[in-house]
Amino acid sequence: MQFSNHVDELHDITYEGIPDHGHYNVPILSGGAVLGVIVLYLPPGYAYNERDVRFLQAFASTLSNIIRRKRTEDLLRESEARFRQIVENASDIIYRMDAEGRMTYVNPVGLRWMGYAEEREVLGKY
């Protein structure tokens, strides 16, 4: 975390006439990797405040969890799509039954082999 109460020599981006300001820079971390940075601009001369720091760090941690969760959901969705494509285009019969022996899934090859046009015609049957 970085804090500055005014534009100083550590300011990476500067230009002539830049208005004086302070800022907190708080990294959004996940397992040592930086996912992003929260930059909070402050009025010039703003005093460092430990309460601000705790809040911003908690906020960064929450954002990290949200980002990781979203990335995991995206990866799962991509994996499910690849699996669905493989199963739907397989040349073998692929089916799934529940504990009572009812059909819960049949791929297109299985439907054709059993003489059904649509999956809903066979789902739930023994």
From TrEMBL:
Q: Which UniProt keywords apply?
A: Membrane, Transmembrane, Transmembrane helix
InterPro entries linked: GAF (IPR003018), GAF-like_dom_sf (IPR029016), PAS (IPR000014), PAS-like_dom_sf (IPR035965)
What Gene3D superfamilies does its record include? Answer: 3.30.450.40, PAS domain
* PAS domain boundaries: 79-119
What residues form the membrane-spanning segments?
Answer: 24-42
The record's annotation in PROSITE patterns points to: PAS (PS50112)
SUPFAM superfamilies reported in the protein's UniProt record? GAF domain-like, PYP-like sensor domain (PAS domain)
Its protein name is: PAS domain-containing protein
Q: Which organism is it from?
A: Candidatus Thermofonsia Clade 3 bacterium
